[in-house]
Design a protein that fits this description.
Length: 106
């Protein structure tokens, strides 16, 4: 699996609850349409382990079969729609991509 991982913080004028509702609702409706999307996991962050990790609201992991499939998704009209919906929100994000390795499964 090749993943796009997004760590995001809400715009300053939004509550945590508003941001999660939007992310899992209206934004998810657009994101789920991405071509080649095989899986999507979302974690609502409710606590930080340490002070330097504070200030984030959620993590999304979008899974694709290959880097090429992710590139196609990022070049798609569906991605453009999702980006347009985000618009000029003043939230923060970190976006990284890479190959997944399962290290443990119970």
């Amino acid at each position: 699996m090749y993943n796009l991982v997004l760590l995001a913080a809400r715009p300053p004028e939004w509550t945590h609850e508003q941001f999660i509702t939007w992310w899992r609702g209206d934004h998810a409706k657009l994101t789920c349409r991405l071509p080649g999307l095989r899986s999507w996991r979302h974690t609502e962050i409710d606590a930080a382990l340490e002070p330097r990790s504070e200030g984030w609201d959620g993590v999304s992991v979008l899974g694709f079969d290959s880097p090429e499939d992710l590139k196609k998704a990022l070049a798609s009209p569906e991605w453009a729609d999702a980006v347009a919906q985000v618009g000029d929100m003043k939230g923060r994000r970190i976006a990284v991509m890479g190959t997944e390795a399962e290290l443990f499964a119970a």
